[in-house]
Every structure is written in C-alpha cells, then in structure tokens.
Design brief:
heterodimer, A: Dihydrodipicolinate Reductase, domain 2, 12 helices, 19 strands, 31% strand, B: alpha/beta, six-stranded parallel beta sheet
C-alpha cells in the first residue's frame, strides 16, 4: 500500500555510456549506493519492462513522468526512447530510479533508462532496447502519439520483443493506424492494447448492465439501431471519433452481427443501423457523449453522462420496468489508463475481436 | 414452500465478456435480520455499497433491513450512510453512487418472533418485485445470535417466503453467521432446523476468512503452480505452523467470549479452514462441492485426541496483566462481563496430525490467541533439511531448512527462505528471503471479505462457504478436547498480555526439537 510517493529520479540520476553492459553495471552501482544511503530497507521491484516510444522532448518528459508515477502501483523497468530522425545523428543514455514509500517505511524502487537517438542512429535503438530488457518479464511498448504507419518496419522492429503494444487511438489521424494495430495483432505475437479502449470500459459496463436483467437479455436480438454521439472539437480529426467507433464495433462483435466490407451491418433480424454522430463540445473531446439503442418495438435504452455527478446514467423505456442504473465514471487521466493497462496480466481478447470490425466500420467515420 | 414453473437457463450476457465485472448477479431482495446491529453497520452495508461502487451490483438490487427498533426508510438510509462514511473500503462515499444505491434501501420494523411483521415484510418484498425487478429472488441474511435462527426460519417458511430450488422458481438463499453452534450437538441442532425450511444448497454459512484474497490464494498457490505440489507432502515437509494472533483483547465481547474462548471462536472455524486448505488434495474442479469434499476429507483425517490424554498435545492459556505495543493491558479476568475466576482460554496451541498418505506423521502446530504482540495470521511450511550436509566440516557454514511463509494478514504475501553463499573468498552461508507482496505487485486494496462473500451468495456459488458436514466434522474432532478442558480444574496457563503465549506453548513445540517461527 502506498502511503506516500516520492520521485527520487534526480538524486539517483546519472549519465551512462550507450552500451547495455555499461548501463546494467551503472544500474547495479546506483542500487548499491542508494542502499547505503537509505535509512530504511529498499526493495528493487519490477513486474514489467515498459518501453515508451516518444518523438519529442515534450512527449519524452510526459512519458517519463507518467511511468514514474505508474511505477508506484506497477513496479517496472522503464525505458523511455526518444527517436528523432530529423535530429543530428547521435545517441545518448542516462539512468535513474523512481522510489515510492510503501507501508512500514519501506521504499520500493523501479529503474528508468532513457535513450535519445537522432538521425540514422535511431536504427540502433531496437537492439539496444532488446539488450536492456529484464529477462522473463513481460514487455510493453507504449507508443506515445500517432503511429507512424509510413514506417511500419521500424515499428515492427521495436515491437519484436513486445508482448503488448499500447497505443492511444485518440491520436490516430486515419483509419490506416487502426488497421496497422490490427495487422500487428494478426501478424505478430504482440497483443495490442488501446488506452481509448480503456476509456470505453465505463460505457461497456453501463451498456452491459442494461442487458443484465433476464427480461432484457432476449431483447439483444431485437436491436435495430445504435446511435453513438462522439464529442469533437469541431474538426474532422479521425481520432476524435474512434472511441465511438470502437463502441459500435464492440456491440456488433459481441452480438455476432456481420459487418461487410462496405460497413453494412446485419443481425439475426436484418440490417442494423449503426450511426456515429459528431457533436461539438468544449471539454472531453474524443469521448462518447451519448448512446441510444433502439429496439424492434420502437422502445429504446439510452446512456448519458452526468458530468456533475461523475456517473453514466442508463435508462430503459418500453415494456420492461427497471430502475435507472448508474455506473461510476472511471478516472481517465493518462496515469490511470496506463496503470489499468499494465495491471491486466493478459491481452484483452475482446479488443482483438473488435479491431477488425472497427477497421471495417471506420469507413462510416472516415468516409 | 411455494412452487413456481421451472425457469429456462439463460445464456450469459455477451456484453459482459472481458469486463472486470464479468459476473453480475440477477437483482434480488437481500433481507438483513438484525439490521440495527453492529455487523450491519460495520461490515454488511459498507460491503454492499462498495460492491455498488465497483459496478458489481445489478440495477434493482434491493436491501431490506429488518429489526426491532422503529426506523423509517429514510432514517435507516441515513444511519447506513453514516456507517458507509466510516467503514466502506471505497471512501469517501460517492454521492451519485450512494443516491442510486439508497433508492434500493428499505426498512421493516418487527420482532423476530412476530408473524405479522413477516407478513409486512413479505408485502414490502412483493412491492419491490414489482418496482425494482427483483422477481421473487430472495436472500435472507441472519445477522442475529443463533438462538433466533429457529424462529426466523420457521416464520419465513410459514409465510411462504421460501422457494424450493427444486421448483425451478426464483432463488431463495439464507446466510448464517458463525458461531455455527457451541459444540457438535448444538451444531447438529442448528443444521437440523435449517433444513426444515431450506435445502442444504440454499444455506450459506459465512466464515469470513474464506472471503480473504490471501486465503483464496492458497488454492492458487498450490494448484495453479507446477513447482509446489510435488514437494507438498511428508517426503519434503518437516512440519507446518499456523499462527492466528490478535493484539486486541476481548473488548466489548466479554460476555460472548466467556461462552466461547479462542477454541470455539477461532480454532473450530478459521484455523481449521486454513488447515484444510493447506492439507487438502487437489479437487476435481474449482466448484463448490469438489472443493468442500476435499476439505472435509482433511477434517475427517484429523487424528483424534486420545481418550483420557486429550491435553497431551494441546495447551491453553489466558492473558494476565501486561502491555501490548507499549500500552498497558489488563488481565482477561478483569475485562468487563468476564468472571474474575474465569477459566476460559484466550490462547490455545496444539500439535495435530492429518492421518493420511500425504501427511502421515507430519506435525501441524497451530496457535491462536488474544493480546499477543501483534495482529498477524501466518502459515509457514518448514521443509526438511538437505539430505546430506556437504559443508559440515567447513566453519561458518550452518545451513537452515527452507521455509515457505504465507502471510494472510496484514501485509499479505508469500516469502521463501533459502541459504545463499555470502560473497567472499571463503565458503560462508546466510539465509536470504525471496518475497512476493500483494501491495507491491498488485498495488491495489483487495476487496473486503464480506464483499466477496455477499457477491458469491448473490451469484449462488457456495465454494467459499462452510458446508454442514465440514462444520459438524470440525466440532466432532474438537469436542473431546473442550470437554477435557472443561473438567480440568487446573485452568489455563497464564501469559502476560503482549507476550507470545504461555511457556507451555513453547515447550509443546520445543520438545520436538522445533521452535515457533516469529511471524
């Protein structure tokens, strides 16, 4: 249990040569030195190798801070890579540690390695990262920002040792990014994970709760129309409607609907109309704002967000009498999303079903 | 019993796949008898609220408090809100979640023996069926002393508030709190009463230890890992120690404790559950009856206390004046509602054997007590030493047996102690420890035991509940010792509050050339 969190990165930071053996040796010295100065017992812990891929100073800093905080909950060896093809050809590295106080005055520390590469030196990054991974420990690659689908080879090289690829599809600029993630899943042993999918969980939970009562279960077959409203900034940036797209794809995949190449959806009783609408809003751009599910008999169920109360409210009208349900909105800041991803021991099999459907349905958004 | 048309099995909700809340029960009316009591406010309502907070309760889940004090629904809600503010795991209480949760919270005033009160209760439940979609599903939680169980059970039956599971109609389940009797005879009587109104599979006997994550992890540790089970037997294990220690005294429970003592309060239930989980054979499936079948086999294999020599392998103690964690602590006999010449044991230690192929002649040392130096529940598996002392002629080398320690509470985790070479030119060894801690590895507060157990009841899974034969077999084993102690005028050995128990407990293990592990 964490009682307090301290970031000890700066005092423990030191520059090291870009050689995996030298880095490991310096890490060992760092631990020995910090054990000597620590008043209380210090434990070195790791459950994951997390490699954050960034492409600017700003995203590097962001990833380092997010993973530093995340290591309080999920101890990890963090490797933050900054890869800038347009920068001068050089490569450098430094190490540090993120320490957190746990119960009984003990400190648990996780280590962080930073690698910055520019120009053609970026191709030295994947083997270097490979050599720095703790053996027998799962590897997550967090791709910060948009996927460079035009550099698929570089992406795949970095993903070679990865068990999980973490992306945030809210940053995707085109359906091609979504398709690339789907290809990673199909062609490699890396399981994709999407922070946008984690954001969607509260909507999935609220939707599932509508169909929990036995009377409602049979109505799943009678769905005629699913309308999902995405909150957007007013632009037509693809990423802003991906959460709504994933929701539609999830409903369709879980209910066994058939989605053809033209994004036409058919269920057991005929065509089902999936509508993704954009609504301009100031806050929470990219989030789903409202869902409406219509049934054969004209009745409908809806889910809306009550921002003030921090909950989603589900309402069902028509033949079934059931009280409104509330689902607690889940914190959607980056720290929380990353932690929730890393806490999952295995890849999300439902997302794997959803991705190809989403790629097909993407025509409805992009087109 | 009322009979309804058989219901068709319903396919699982496909939209639940992959969600953290993969299993959500059907909405039911949960009636808490004794809703004005301590357990309801401290444990049950906070646990139910936390389930709602985590999205694990279905829309329409209804909770009806039933007790003697005259509350309105609103007054009951207010009292329960205060309780959740103080005791819920998920604090601060989320207003929006509470508001919705409280809509399903009702109160019916009545005496446990008043038939008319049951009619009023039934009316309220039927109203909830109409307005909240609970469709006749009922769970009765008897948070009351065992003497009320027969009358509540009888009146529920008389008012036709219990559905026979054979009818295929909506479920009815009943939850009973320990103590499940005072001895074998009273346990049998309680169980007999239960099955006049309910079938055994409708009865959920709560032993909250079984709801603890770490206790459940015992089965995962043993049966989900390939490396432990081959060594989990008399060939490799020298002995096993169990410690359930509390630093507190009897507090306000002096009256109850005078009729119970640590053997009835802890050993007959919590401790023997832990022994069963450590000693059981792999079940054929992780389901209620296969798991409980294996547990009960362990209890049946416990070696009987030899007639006339029941106390040979058992020690009882009682705390005297002392200090715990720097605070003065008074003797048990000076506690409120405790007789000044009480012989009730606040500490017990035993050497017991599980007489079967796996454990033949492996001693299990168990101890439990109040006013010990700290609150801790710990199991340690002590392995046999290496077969040949390779370094016996080398000075500085003294190898120690390996110990696998399982910490149930607090600071839950597992550690393995083994010897390692001390770096340097000469051969010297030192014990080192490899540790797994829940808090470090998972960084999450595990749910309260009651949350898990209430949810399992709603889902109808009785794996984590004690079965009738488990309870009766445990009593059948313990009864002769309790009878021997009751007729022994010497009384318990005194130990100062804040110590690890009476000296006789140390003698019990040290005469075998072993020592209690400091947990």
């Amino acid at each position: 249990m964490e009682t307090a969190v301290t970031s000890a990165l700066d005092p423990l930071r030191s520059d090291v040569a870009v050689d995996p053996n030298a880095i490991e040796k310096n890490l060992a010295e760092l631990w020995r030195a910090s054990k000597e100065v620590a008043d209380e017992a210090l434990t070195r812990a790791a459950l994951w190798n997390v490699v954050a891929h960034t492409c600017s100073q700003a995203t590097h800093t962001q990833a380092s801070e997010v993973l530093g905080r995340a290591s309080a909950t999920v101890p990890q060896r963090t490797i933050v890579v900054r890869s800038e093809p347009a920068a001068p050809p050089q490569i450098e590295s430094w190490i540090g540690a993120n320490c957190h106080l746990v119960g009984g005055g003990k400190q648990v520390c996780s280590e962080e390695i930073a690698i910055v590469a520019g120009g053609d030196r970026i191709h030295r990054v994947p083997p270097l990262v490979n050599a720095l991974l703790i053996p027998d420990m799962p590897v997550a690659v967090w791709w910060v920002g948009d996927l460079p689908n035009e550099h698929e080879e570089y992406v795949l090289a970095l993903l070679e040792p990865a068990d999980r690829l973490i992306v945030d599809s809210v940053n995707f600029d085109s359906p091609a990014d979504l398709m690339l993630v789907d290809r990673v899943s199909a062609k490699t042993t890396t399981t994709p994970a999407d922070l946008n999918w984690v954001r969607l969980e509260e909507w999935r939970q609220a939707t599932a709760s509508i169909f929990d009562p036995p009377d409602m279960r049979s109505r799943l077959e009678t769905i005629r129309r699913v309308r999902v409203v995405a909150g957007t900034s007013g632009s037509d940036y693809f990423g802003e409607s991906v959460e709504a797209l994933l929701y539609s794809a999830w409903m369709s995949a879980q209910l066994g609907h058939h989605v053809d190449a033209q994004a036409k959806v058919e269920g057991p009783r005929g065509v089902i109309d999936y509508v993704i609408e954009r609504r301009r809003q100031e806050k929470s751009v990219g989030d789903i704002a409202f869902v409406e599910i219509r049934f054969d008999d004209g009745s409908c169920a809806s889910i809306s967000r009550d921002r003030e109360k921090g909950v989603l409210v589900s309402t069902v009208d028509g033949v079934v009498s059931m009280p409104d349900a509330v689902t607690r909105a889940i914190a959607a800041n980056l720290d929380e999303l990353i932690v929730r991803q890393l806490k999952r021991a295995r890849g999300d099999q439902v997302l794997l079903k959803v991705l190809p459907v989403a790629s097909r349905l993407a025509r409805r958004v992009a087109g | 019993m009322s009979v309804a048309a058989p219901a068709q099995a319903l396919a699982p909700n496909p939209l639940r796949e992959g969600l953290e809340q993969e299993r959500v029960p059907d909405a039911s009316c949960l009636v808490i008898f004794g809703a004005s009591g301590d357990l309801t406010g401290r444990k049950l309502l906070p646990a139910l609220y936390s389930l709602a907070h985590d999205g694990l309760l279905p829309a329409g889940q209804t909770i009806v408090g039933f007790a003697r004090p005259d509350y309105s629904d609103d007054a009951f809600r207010m009292a329960m809100r205060e309780a959740c503010d103080k005791f819920a795991r998920t604090r601060p209480v989320d207003d929006a979640v509470w508001e919705n949760f409280a809509k399903g919270l009702f109160y019916v005033q009545g005496d446990f023996g008043d038939a008319q009160a049951y009619a009023r209760l039934n009316q309220k439940l039927q109203e909830c069926d109409r307005t909240r979609g609970t469709s006749g599903r009922r769970i009765y939680y008897l948070a009351v002393p065992p003497q009320f169980f027969p009358v509540i059970s009888e009146l529920l039956g008389a008012e036709k508030m219990v559905t026979d599971p054979e009818s295929g109609g909506p479920f009815t389940r009943v939850i009973i709190e320990k103590p499940f009797g005072h001895d074998l005879q009273s346990a049998k009587e309680l169980n007999r009463v239960a099955v006049t109104t309910f079938r055994e599979r409708q009865v959920f006997r709560i032993d909250h230890y079984l709801g603890k994550e770490t206790v459940q992890n015992l089965l995962v540790l043993r049966f989900a890992n390939g490396i432990f089970e081959p060594f989990w037997n008399r060939q490799y294990i020298d002995h096993v120690q169990f410690t359930v220690a509390e630093s507190i005294g009897v507090e306000k429970r002096g009256g109850y404790y005078e009729s119970a003592g640590v053997s009835r309060d802890i050993i007959q239930n919590h401790m023997l559950q832990l022994v069963s989980l450590i000693a059981m054979e792999p079940p054929v499936a992780f389901e209620a009856d296969p798991v409980r079948d294996e547990k009960v086999k362990v209890l049946r294999a416990l070696r009987e206390f030899p007639k006339g020599h029941e106390q040979e392998n058992a020690v009882r103690g009682q705390y005297s004046d002392g200090s715990v964690l720097g605070e003065k602590a008074i003797a048990y006999r000076k506690e409120p509602n405790v007789s000044p010449d009480s012989n009730v044991e606040t500490y017990a230690a035993m050497k017991i054997y599980v007489d079967n192929w796996r454990w033949a002649d492996v001693p299990f040392y168990i101890r439990s007590g109040k006013r010990l130096p700290k609150r801790v529940t710990d199991i340690s598996i002590h392995f046999r030493p290496a077969p040949y002392p390779l370094w016996k002629k080398v000075r500085g080398v003294q190898t120690m047996p390996n110990v696998l320690a399982i910490r149930i509470q607090p600071d839950e985790g597992i550690s393995l102690k083994f010897d390692s070479k001390v770096p340097g030119p000469s051969v010297r060894t030192a014990p080192v420890t490899m540790e797994f801690r829940y808090a470090t590895s998972f960084g999450a507060e595990p749910p309260e035991a009651y949350e898990r157990l209430l949810l399992e009841t709603m889902l109808g899974d009785s794996t984590l509940f004690a079965r009738r034969d488990e309870v009766e077999t445990a009593w059948a084993w313990l009864d002769p010792l309790l009878a021997a102690w009751a007729s022994d005028a010497r009384g318990p050995d005194l130990y100062p509050a804040g110590s690890w128990g009476p000296e006789s407990a140390d003698v019990l293990i040290e005469r075998d050339g072993r020592k209690w592990r400091r947990p």
